[in-house]
Amino acid sequence: MTAFLVVLVIILFGITVLQLGKIFNMSKSAEELGESSEIANLKDNNVNGWLMLGLAIFTYVLMILCFWKWGDVLLPKSASEHGVETDNLMLISMSLIFIVGFFTLWLLSYFAFKYRGAEDTKALFFADNDKLEFIWTIIPVIVLAALIIYGLFTWTDIMNVDADEDPMVVELYAYQFDWRARYSGSDNTLGEANVRLIEGANQLGVDTSDPNAQDDIVVNELHLPVGKQVLFKMRSQDVLHSAYMPHFRAQMNCVPGMITQFSFTPTVTTDEMRMDDVIVAKVKKINELRSEKSKELALKGEEALEPYEFDYMLLCNKICGTNHYNMQMKIIVESQEDYDAWLATQPNIATSLKK
């Protein structure tokens, strides 16, 4: 380490000397410096003008290639009620950014090219122009204000829980490196819980003396009835996690020592989403890639990859440790009848802790 620091100091000292030399050169005239002059000449202006034009063309070509090659990796349609508004807000924001960026880059590059320095050209400039400054200030203010107000109304609609719908209460419990879900049972009220009560089979630290906890149900696979609003209460056992359900356009941090919440209404069952044309195409492409990979594994004598089947997933969207990538839980959206049938087979807290 000492040798590395010595080498680093020598390199930095050399860079400092070079920079000091450039500073001293700035005090000399262009004639004295000759070809080594850092003052831009006509050749430099011409080269930079063409480079600016090339930058715009390169950016547009790259953008077209990205849309053509990776346009199919975007998320499919939203599977929740509020997701439609979220997607609309994203579409409006990205469209504005795209349009403004497209024309701004072209104007910047075009004028830098057209009006690059030349002997017979003198720059025309305005010391100030109140009218122009007002225009290019007020337009962004109006656009940004409209986007912010629209976003605030959208966020308020998403975060407001409709008490008249009597939403189903489910706890999402995060810990390194897995998830557990706790259903509130027939009383739709979660029992008290505390990490200090974690012991043995009681992984979530549920207070078993709380009457509301007796019918709570803890599972490692999340089932949701379609068309029913679900209020998620989120806790973390150890570090900051983030409950991310991309197909439902839902994300909320799970913070140690506090309870956060988020609600949404699923609108598309798992089976319906599997039949969606976009999902069918994605699954087909993934399985083609897996098939090619399996051939490579077979030559090495290793086990082939299983075919992929689409499922909704709960992921952690915070880098919470070395096994962060493993932190996922399957979500199944189904009819109310199928959900009730599944729930009836799950043991509650009082029963499971006795085993």
Automatic annotation (TrEMBL):
It comes from the Bacteria. It is found in: Cell membrane; Membrane. Residues 165-345 form the Cytochrome oxidase subunit II copper A binding domain. Keywords: Copper, Electron transport, Membrane, Metal-binding, Respiratory chain, Translocase, Transmembrane, Transmembrane helix, Transport. It is a multi-pass membrane protein. Its cofactor is Cu cation. Gene3D superfamilies: 1.10.287.90, Cupredoxins - blue copper proteins. The chain crosses the membrane at residues 6-26, 47-70, 90-113, 134-153. GO terms for molecular function: copper ion binding; cytochrome-c oxidase activity. It catalyses: 4 Fe(II)-[cytochrome c] + O2 + 8 H(+)(in) = 4 Fe(III)-[cytochrome c] + 2 H2O + 4 H(+)(out). Its main location: membrane. GO terms for biological process: ATP synthesis coupled electron transport. Its EC number is 7.1.1.9. GO terms for cellular component: plasma membrane. It is an enzyme of class 7 (translocase). Subunits I and II form the functional core of the enzyme complex. Electrons originating in cytochrome c are transferred via heme a and Cu(A) to the binuclear center formed by heme a3 and Cu(B). PANTHER family: CYTOCHROME C OXIDASE SUBUNIT 2, CYTOCHROME C OXIDASE, SUBUNIT II. Belongs to the cytochrome c oxidase subunit 2 family. This is Cytochrome c oxidase subunit 2.
